[in-house]
Write a structure and sequence with these properties.
The protein contains 19 helices and 12 strands. By secondary structure, it is of the alpha/beta class. It folds into 3 domains: 157 residues, no CATH class; 127 residues, Rossmann fold; 151 residues, NAD(P)-binding Rossmann-like Domain (Rossmann fold, 3-Layer(aba) Sandwich), CATH 3.40.50. The strands form 2 sheets. It has a 7-stranded mixed beta sheet with strand order 3-4-2-1-5-6-7. A 5-stranded parallel beta sheet has the order 10-9-8-11-12, sandwiched between helices. It is rod-shaped and about 120 Å long.
């Protein structure tokens, strides 16, 4: 049974239902009046069974006249409070309050008239117990059918195909407003299922019926369990946090960070289609947004002029930085890219990726060690690289503190070997990447990276 229900939820039946047009105002008013009439009949039956009075005799009006009076008064108050003007699927507490006021007024008005008639003519048009019972039954029916419509459309929209579960980062008013907006929108592809709070925030158990989770070391495991791939951050929250520090835990684990337009951009005077576009304009934060400086734009034409039809050598080619350099260099039509690497498994994996990504670029895979000048000389002798990106280096601080001699051999001597051979074999450009990271080193590894080697001028 549960499997069948899940299949129905994944089908497109709900997506068709959520695209239905809004019910016209006269349709809402007609259903409201029908429910009001049902409420009066039920109230009459309840009062008749409890009081057991003959409503057709005595001084009271016939039941059909009593119902007619109440319905006319009820219609008048529906019109005064405009209970039919709202869109049912977007019903709010204000809409429910209008219904309550309209029903209470419609019950108390005949009761007041009934009291005046009783005082003046010493007779009653109707039984007050029927009016008071009607007030309760009508409120229940009218409010419940609005709530039913609202919840039904929310359920159908949240279980339509393509809906993505998201978490809202932040528990302040801006985050709550985003959750309300997404819950009320039938056109949003996102469904909020919870909130993420900073550790220093006042964490509550639930907000808007959704749980609040603390951003800690377990948050990624929780997101994976709930199949959440997107976290939404409000524009105000973006200003309050350090983007690089507070959002890195998500970006490092391939969780997209989304943000919304400012709520001042949503104008009540805009038509529905305009606001739909604004709701749909939730966009992912770019990596450039996390920089605490202006983005540097590279003149790609100049880069293409330098690299095109040249032999480019990348040392440490299978490392985290070296592999990305290789992918970027491959875009600019080099004659050959020499992949110099000491680790054969990472080099093999990189080669497989490059065969798929860059099938038209020629690569030479070379197992070599920058610490061994003679091995390195054989590579220069065979390929005569025009441009060299030197990315081979040890970089893990704890390990290099245990083996300081290896750090010096690779990061200092290795860099000197590559630089000397670049000069000897007439390389046009030599870009040192492995020795430009440390500024004021306090350990052996940092000191080895801080070493600057200035060979003879490279032509």
């Amino acid at each position: 049974m549960r499997k069948r229900l899940s299949e129905i939820q994944r089908s497109d039946i709900f997506s068709h239902a959520t695209n239905l047009s809004y019910m016209p105002k006269w349709g809402v008013l007609l259903i409201d009046m029908l429910l009001a009439l049902i409420a009066y009949v039920v109230s009459f039956m309840i009062s008749n069974s409890l009081v057991n009075i003959n409503f057709t005799g005595g001084n009271m009006l016939p039941i059909w006249q009593q119902a007619g009076i109440v319905m006319v008064v009820q219609l008048m108050y529906f019109w005064i409070f405009h209970t039919y003007s709202g869109i049912l699927r977007y019903s709010t507490f204000v809409d429910a309050s209008k219904v309550v006021f309209a029903v209470v007024a419609a019950a108390l008005t005949p009761a007041a008239i009934n009291g005046i008639v009783r005082y003046v003519a010493e007779r009653s048009m109707m039984l007050n117990s029927v009016l008071y019972t009607y007030m309760f039954v009508a409120i229940v029916l009218l409010v419940c059918w609005r709530v039913t419509i609202k919840l039904s459309f929310e359920y159908m929209s949240h279980h339509s195909p393509g809906i993505r579960p998201v978490m809202i980062y932040g528990t302040q008013s801006a985050g709550l407003a985003i959750a309300k907006m997404l819950n009320s929108s039938m056109d949003s592809p996102y469904r909020p299922i919870g909130f993420i709070a900073d550790a220093e925030e006042n964490v509550k158990h639930e907000l808007l019926g959704m749980k609040v989770y603390v951003k800690n070391d377990n948050i990624i495991r929780l997101l994976r369990a709930k199949e959440v791939q997107d976290v939404i951050v409000s524009p105000l929250k973006m200003k309050q946090i350090n983007l690089a520090r507070d959002l890195s835990i998500f970006l490092d684990n391939n969780i997209r960070i989304l943000t919304t337009p400012y709520f001042s951009d949503f104008n009540e005077s805009d038509n529905e289609e305009q606001n739909k576009k604004k709701i749909g304009s939730i966009e992912a934060i770019k990596v450039e947004d996390l920089l605490e400086r202006p983005e540097i734009h590279i003149n790609t034409e100049n880069v293409r002029h330098v690299i095109s039809d040249k032999v480019v050598m990348v040392t440490g080619a299978a490392g985290s930085i070296g592999s990305e350099i290789v992918r970027q260099v491959a875009k600019y039509n080099p004659r050959l890219v020499v992949l110099a690497e000491i680790a054969e498994s990472p080099l093999h994996d990189l080669s497989l990726d490059l065969d798929k990504l860059c099938p038209n670029v020629h690569f030479a895979r070379v197992i070599t060690d920058v610490r061994n000048r003679e091995m390195l000389r054989e590579v220069f002798e065979e390929y005569h690289p025009h441009i060299i990106f030197h990315a081979a280096a040890y970089k893990h601080v704890p390990l290099m503190e245990e083996y300081p001699t290896q750090a010096i051999l690779a990061n200092v001597l290795g860099t000197k070997n590559v630089a000397d051979l670049a000069v000897e074999y007439g390389a046009e450009r030599f870009i040192m990447i492995s020795t430009d990271k440390a500024v004021n080193p306090t350990n052996v590894m940092g000191a080895s990276l801080r070493t600057i080697i200035i060979p003879q001028a490279i032509g």
